[in-house]
Amino acid sequence: QVQLVESGGGLVQAGGSLRLSCVVSGSIFSVNARAWYRQAPGKQRELVAVISSGGSTNYADSVKGRFTISRDNAKNTVYLQMNNLKPEDTAVYYCNVQLFRDVIVSYWGQGTQVTVSS
Predict the structure, then answer these.
(1) What is the pLDDT of residue 28?
(2) SS3 track for the chain
């Protein structure tokens, strides 16, 4: 079993910053990637940032240059540093970890709300 718990969301003004954290626990063996997704009201869930097991990163164009994904393997924690937040960043943010089994299996956190006021 694998459990992901997000924290760090909240209400901020446009231009502000937040750092989201995701603590991963359980039977974690072979990690393919760790990622952050978000889902705004009325919209599909979208990939925001991903970090591979080797440490390479990719970002959605809408957040590139403003958000940074990182990890601390010793703490089993994934972070998303969010700078220069915009109202369009308002969404529920979900942590995701992809593990190698016989196939790649995704595990999800419960989500944390980020609201950016204008």
Answers:
(1) 83
(2) CEEEEEECCEEEECCCCEEEEEEEEECCCCEEEEEEEEECCCCCCEEEEEEECCCCEEECCCCCCCEEEEEEHHHCEEEEEECCCCHHHCEEEEEEEEEECCCEEEEECCCEEEEEEC
